[in-house]
Amino acid sequence: MAGKSDKKTDKKTDKKTYEATAEAKMQKLGAEIDALQAKANLAKADAKVKYQEQLNTLKEKQAAAKVKFESLKGSAGNAWEELQTGVNSAWQELQTAFDKAKSELDK
Q1: Separation between Cα atoms, residue 76 and residue 49, nearest integer Å
Q2: Contact call for residues 50 and 104 (beta carbons, < 8 A)
Q3: Cystine design at 72: which of 38, 83, 97, 102 (Cβ 3.0–4.6 Å)?
Q4: Of 49, 45, 83, 79, nearest to 67 (Cα)?
Q5: Which comes out higher in pLDDT, residue 32 or 42?
Q6: Which conformational region is residue 43 in: left (phi greater than 0), alpha (psi within -120 to 50 degrees), or beta?
Q7: 21 touches 90 (CB < 8 A)
Q8: Distance between CA 79 and CA 40 in Å, rounded?
């Protein structure tokens, strides 16, 4: 029976580690999104509209990723492992949108 509790503890540790890592990545990317927003605000009027559209998309993806992450944080048992796939997918979409917006703003 000790093996079962060790496995359960390992899963809790894995979940906590994943949550901490994901939280840190989301905070870092959030700060980078804020920096892009500030840069877009300084752009000329014609470029500002284009940048703002990209930033709006980026912020929508950021909100979606946060919702999925909050669901994962509130999950119990093995459910978090299933939710992890959705969080990873949302994170990848957010990262891709960020990279695209950053590349446009860096031109």
Answers
A1: 43
A2: yes
A3: 83
A4: 83
A5: 32
A6: beta
A7: no
A8: 39
Q: Is the dihedral of CA 25, 28, 33, 39 positive or negative?
A: negative
Cβ(52)–Cβ(40) below 8 Å: yes
Q: For residues 29 and 78, what is the distance between their CA atoms, to the nearest angstrom?
A: 28
What DSSP string runs through the chain?
-HHHHHHHHHHHHHHHHHHHHHHHHHHHHHHHHHHHHHHHHTS-HHHHHHHHHHHHHHHHHHHHHHHHHHHHHT--TTHHHHHHHHHHHHHHHHHHHHHHHHHHHT-
Determine the residue type at 71: S
Residues 69/22, Cβ–Cβ less than 8 Å: yes
Rounded to two decimals, what is the model's pTM? 0.72
Q: Among residues 61, 58, 63, which one has the least CA distance to residue 101?
A: 58
